[in-house]
User: Fold these one by one.
Assistant:
Number 1:
Amino acid sequence: MKSNRFGLIAVATVLSLALAGGVAAAQMVTQFQTVNAQVTQADAVAASHVSNIRIHVQLRQEALKGGNPAAWSLAPGTLDRLLGNSPPQSSPAIVTAPDTPTISFFPGRVTKGPGTVVVSAQSHSVFLNCAGDLCWGNPNPNTFLTNLGLSTFVHVLDQYAGSTANGRYTVGTAVNATFPIYAPANTLSQNDILQIVHASAVATGKLVGYGHIYHVFLPKGVDTCFDPSLGGGCYSPDNFSTFVFCAYHESVQFSDIGHVLYTVEPFQWPISSTNPGCSLPPGTPNGQVIDSTANALSHEFFETVSDPDPPNGFTVPLGPMSGFEIGDVCHGPFANLSLNGHSYAIQLEDSNTYEACVNSN
């Protein structure tokens, strides 16, 4: 049989499907598919031919104490030039929000900009350089995404998406991606991430557009940084002088496969009492790795749905929180939430309906 750079693996997972009202539950078996993707020169070329790049960064809580969030603003065309586009086809934007106080209620509202929102979508986990998919805890993040999609918590998004239907956010084909990461730096650039995203989207059969969200999970010990001309901000828990963000979400237009939504999920580790970084403290229901990963992933998922092309979706329009997305408004405190009968320690999300940080609709 002719070899292919994409291998297909079927994984049977037993899910507990909560019925309406939570009165009863049924067991069902769902087949999750996983494809393999090796980043190639074609992906490198594609990463240098992108436009309409929009990024929103989830800052770690200590990053901007005494800092200036304006340093993260990009002049039109800057990122296009950094990525090798000539001439720039659009004006990209990096949007970031400073840390919020610990609050339960928020006295303002987010409003919608001129862009779209994600009414329904499949999530595609991209597991980088980890053949077993279990480097981020066992079970892997697909289980969290499945339980989130079957929960009442996900219906906080109804008010932003304009739909109350169940089953709008599901888990699709995952990707085991391979990309060389060299010591001692062990750092991925923005262009590296774009190559991985492109290879992953091609591996799934070019599942792109607003109906698909890719989540790129970085292995332990790997940092990722923006270009120094952007301020040099990184996810770098091993170097607190450059450690700025916990995760981010982005939209990008590839010239060959089109519009892609994705999040970048660094490994939420290490932590200590003096350097908490982005991770949750000990004692969470599933342990620090699973719950810290779920917390960052939940934040980015909710914001990708409500503001897929930042800042053109739902954001705070005015005041000191201007530019905040719905996850930023409630970033900081977390609670043990039951998602489809499974407990996770994750943050709440902002609700215009209640003008509060809530755990359900």
Number 2:
Amino acid sequence: MLEQKRVVIGDRSSLKERKKEKKIEVESKKGIGEKKEKTEEKDVIAPIGEAIDNGVTNLNPDIFYSNLVSNYERARKLYGERLLRLITGYDPKSIEINLQLKEFREELKNSIYRNVKRLQEEGVLNKQYGTTAKTARLIASQLLEEELEKLARIAREGIQGKKPGYGEEKDLIMYKPGIPYRSLSSRATIKTTARRMHRAIHIEDLRYKERKEQKGLELVIVLDTSASMKGEKIRNAKKAGIALTHIAINDGNKVGLVLFSSTSRRKIKPTKNEQEIVESIVRIHPMGQTNMQEAIRDSISLFHRRKMSKHIMLITDALPNVGEKPLEQVLRAINTARERGISISIIGIMLNKEGIRTAEIIARNGAGRFYDLRDANKLDIVLIRDYEEHR
């Protein structure tokens, strides 16, 4: 993997001296330059994924170097320290201290070119310095793994969900031949046995949970990708969207997607193609305004005309702000959705007071729920709760 180079701070002779020391040379060049060992995926995927979340879609070495030299602090915030280490091979603090040294800047530029070329050779970046489909798949896989580990820890609280296609609890019933053992209610059975003062459980004591039949769900995730969603908001939205897609599709349901900002940037009809959905989510980079009304209209058009439950999850951190009287346009779109049997829930991330009032109106008219989320890290739990309620 790439290891950072270190320069003795404030010492103009440090570059020449470092080259004379074989041990330091080997360590500083490990994973870059002429070495041909493959960069470890885990050390590449995370920083590139974080950069995309901050709106970085291209790693052109000329632009990267120019941004560092012209305004280091702005570049550090844009790229993140992990990506700086990956692309430059240097510790960010060393870059900041030594950036005024001519010989350091020359070697920094060469190092950036070497590392970008290496990432191209490994299929992480394409010829135009953008991310490849391979990179999108790796980022999606990493985010999904992180989310499933997190959800596994809270599954015992009943948040993650029920068995696919099995239905929800309806009423307790007495035993009948052919009822699957999974429906057995241990608590109700024990209570019945105790009430009857039986010393052992008799067959007439058995109590089962009757399940209502499920007809399947078509779900469309409508995700705000406007500029205000940069950073942690979009990162958590990606993780939650990927986890929800995985769970819903593995439950036998279909998931669609609308990514919107000033316009709808990506639209996918409800499908069981998990890879198509998650790779589209991974490639999101925030930009533009919040054209909510167009996003809702587009999501309505994606549903198939089958007798299935149809539900939209709208995730946003802002009010609709495109066009004249945007809220009125949103409510007209919601009325169309309700006429077609489509419910709409809205998940508001750190909305202001006006945003909360607007979201409440949207949820009420959309026959769904409004979730006032103050902590974006809990977005995954909220999405899965809403999914369980509407499946």
Number 3:
Amino acid sequence: MKGQRLMAAAVVLAVGGVVYWLWARPAAVVSKDATDRDQGPAEEAARRAQAGDAQTELPDAPTAVLLDCRQPAGDVARGTKVTVSAADLCADYLRLTGKTGRVTEAIDRRIARDTLDRLLDERLVAAALAEAHTAVSAEEVDAGLARLHMADPTRPEAAEQLKRQGVDVAVVRREVKKRLELERLLTLRAVTEPIDSEIMAEYQAHPERYVKGGVRVSVQAYLARLPRDATPEAVAKALGQAQTFATAVQKQEPDKLAPQLRTVAPLPPFDITDGELEPDLAQAVQKLQPGQWTPPVRTRAGWMVAKVLDRKTGEPRPLREVAAQIVVRLRESRRVSEGKRVLAALRAEAEIAILVQL
């Protein structure tokens, strides 16, 4: 059972490039896949502002045309160091959405723009490593897969098993390689390691993170479910239902309220701990006390409103036992911020022009 959970986690991290986003994008985006970019313009702007996503704006070429993935031709982006062809963008776009045809709707164009951003970042990092005469080897990618607790995909029987479980090995390898390449580039650019005072500050500021058994929060949640291909209108409608529920539940019994809203359904009670695959939900309940409700939180399944039932905290662990764990946490946090800074600098140096309307 544990192995199956680990495999599921690896799949979630791989699909939609989430492994890469762990380093190059804000932490609020760690658990989100391509469906989370199905948001309307106002909602998307609010999410980016809340997440602190200062993504570099790319200049649009004055002669930009619509992207047509039925007959991709030419380049969609061009800079001094990298180019992205329409064929490459469409291949990634179709893998994420499963859609075909001309990209005309706002949701499709937004996903395509996000996909193009990832391709540009991937190639800029690879170009920077090539200039430094270094690269990530296939053996290093294999080791990265092993750290995700995946079976050796080079063995035919293992590859077949992964395929039956819905895991695209090629996609996983590519995302792991992108993460390792960004790590290599940050190392070359001398990202500093955490010092003792920073380790102590983290230990004192967040003691709940370093207890035996961690912090376990039991919740009762209600979900306005959304399909993967939900339209912007459906996303907005579900959010409205969840907001109505979150407001009304302060005065009414949830089990009586949910049937009135129809689209909001109860889930069985469950526990949230550190390391959840839904970090936004974990963050929302982090400081709530039993009896308190979260606002609507976007999850992979839809909009969720949760009530804290109970909180349990383990015993504090001495600093000497958790110092290595703190170093890993601080190192990853620093690499997220440094990764964003490095990517922004690479974008600025490359003088990229977008040749299609996205």
Number 4:
Amino acid sequence: MAGLDAAVEKYAKRGKTVELVGLNRPSAELHRELSGKLTTAH
């Protein structure tokens, strides 16, 4: 999920809107719950 957050943030900084498609329901719910709460180690 941190990887998805990083990609969304990267494009948001450039003024782009990102829509994640293809996630199954449990994955989408997990992403909604954790979005913005995870940090990457890089």
